[in-house]
Amino acid sequence: MRRLYFVCLWACVFSLQATPIPPAKPLHLSTREWKEVNPYLLPHSHPLHHQLDEIFAPTRFLSSWNTLERLGFHRFGFSNATSQIIVAEHPTLKNYLIKAYTDESPLDGKKLLLSRIRGAKLIAKKIAKSGLNNQFTVPKKWLYRLPHASPRTKQPYLLIVEKMDILPPEAWKQSALITPELLVHLFQLTTKLGLADSCQVLNIPFTADGKIAFIDTEHVCNWPVAYHKLTPFLSPANQLHWQDICSR
Fold this sequence. Notes:
The chain is α+β, with helices and mostly antiparallel strands.
């Protein structure tokens, strides 16, 4: 009997350890907002969560780029004059980037960041369903809430993005990477999902392992698709292939 008791006790302890504890809703957050963001939040069990909490512990606001710079962030890639989102990396966040709107932006950061996560999930699902994981990829994305955000925090959320080993735009000129079949699949994905901005090479770079990465996932189900923006970056032969595919 005593042995059975300890077996049951051990089973209960193991069960509690194996079952992840769901994050608690912040007291000042409405139930409606919690239900909206909770499915997309970076899990507390993710190793990155503790690192982010430590980085953002000194602040409850993202006042400007200077705030992020003081926390140790560096701008990543080229700045886009038409976008108010900041893309940055941190020396302790290996293989990840952040994207954020600061208090200087009048935009609804939460809404725009959520659209990027939903877009990434939709694209990933379509790639897998079409059996194209060997040709296309999309970075994983999560929402992260500042640990000390309050009702006065204008932009309490930022986006955590899986960093990909991408090649420069010139890779699109390398015919060895691009086949008519690949162009057909790219056309099908962008058309079916309405990826309006995903024919710009900066938004669909090649990765080091030869896949096309959809890194800008905000504009999904947004037609028409600007197919012509890809044409100048293709080799002459692939330009003809692409124009033929788009005209069918």
